[in-house]
Design a protein that fits this description.
Number of helices: 4
Low-confidence stretches: none
Strand order of the largest sheet: 1-9-8-5-4-3-2
Largest sheet: 7 strands, antiparallel
Strand content: 35-45%
Mean pLDDT: 95
Distance between the termini: 32 Å
Structural class: alpha+beta
């Protein structure tokens, strides 16, 4: 069980997605689908190592404006409750190995709602300064953009 929202250290964003929870879950846990929406377009994401199991890697690279792919995120899945909740952190690397630095732990929850999915991302930080820094870096724009991309991806009739 995780702690409740702490306004001093956490940021949160929610959105209703007009797609079944199973489709949202698959978009989150299938690396090829994940690459389609994870970073704000026109940037591109590549899932270098991705295994959505507890202790599994969540390692991505990003390419912006046609630049070569560069490291983006090196994290570890901590908790994976199928079609319900994911928790990952950059405080740990794959296999629960401690990371040299960390910035976030994120909890993604999916709930069935009105024929679609209520999507919530809560991002936890060590302290208020880290939280404020993340907000200043554009948390709401960035995470909001990728949630919008996720919604368009899973709401598309071909997925």
């Amino acid at each position: 069980m995780t702690q409740s929202f702490d306004p001093e250290r956490d940021l949160s964003i929610e959105r209703f997605i007009r797609a079944p929870r199973a489709a949202v879950w698959t978009a989150w846990t299938d690396p090829r689908q994940f690459e389609q929406w994870w970073v704000p377009a026109p940037a591109q994401c590549r899932a270098v190592r991705f295994d959505a199991v507890p202790g599994g890697p969540l390692v991505t690279e990003i390419s912006e404006a046609g630049s070569p792919f560069a490291p983006h995120m090196d994290a570890c899945f901590i908790l994976v409750e199928p079609q319900r909740r994911l928790i990952f952190t950059d405080a740990l690397l794959a296999g629960y190995r401690p990371a040299p630095t960390s910035f976030i732990t994120a909890e993604i929850t999916l709930a069935e709602a009105d024929g679609g999915t209520q999507y919530t991302a809560r991002v936890m930080h060590a302290d208020r300064a880290a939280r404020d820094r993340h907000a200043e870096l554009g948390f709401y724009d960035g995470w909001g953009t990728v949630i919008g991309q996720l919604a368009r991806f899973v709401e598309a009739p071909s997925n």
